[in-house]
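testing teh design pipeline on a random one, pls ignore if ur not involved
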């Protein structure tokens, strides 16, 4: 009788471990309901919610379609500009991977920094640009702004930085 009880206990433990393993695998492979739209969750930071922050762990990841991107440069300094000027800079990039590059979003660090990016896929080996526009109205002094470019790349987010020293108009 004791031998049967031991055997039964081992069978129950084995089935439990197997069930837990199956559940963990399903969690990794099953898409979440919010993955349907492939949109990152935007969370505000502790700085009064002014700068959008993307939570990397919430980004959906389909590694079978991942590619790579190379920006010619990730930082541009406009130098000295006059307050009220709007300036823009085209950040050129190339899809250096084997799958089409898809930018899902580009988010400026404030309302004065507006990115414009290609909405369609960029084939492997092809180039395109992300244009970053900076509106300097009310932004006197030294400014450094960023744009987070979210795409099917590794890393998921590439950060573009612009700088400007904004002087008052005479």
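output:
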């Amino acid at each position: 009788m004791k031998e049967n009880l031991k055997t039964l206990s081992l069978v129950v433990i084995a089935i439990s471990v197997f069930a837990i393993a199956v559940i963990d695998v399903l969690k990794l492979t099953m898409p979440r309901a919010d993955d349907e739209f492939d949109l990152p969750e935007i969370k505000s930071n502790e700085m009064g919610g002014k700068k959008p922050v993307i939570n990397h762990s919430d980004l959906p990841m389909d590694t079978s379609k991942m590619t790579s991107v190379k920006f010619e440069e990730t930082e541009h300094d406009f130098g000295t500009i006059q307050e009220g000027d709007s300036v823009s800079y085209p950040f050129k990039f190339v899809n250096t991977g084997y799958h089409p590059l898809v930018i899902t979003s580009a988010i400026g660090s404030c309302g004065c920094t507006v990115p414009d990016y290609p909405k369609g896929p960029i084939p492997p080996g092809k180039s395109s640009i992300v244009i970053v526009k900076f509106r300097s109205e009310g932004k006197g002094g030294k400014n450094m702004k960023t744009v987070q470019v979210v795409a099917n790349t590794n890393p998921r987010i590439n950060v573009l930085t612009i700088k400007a020293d904004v002087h008052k108009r005479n």
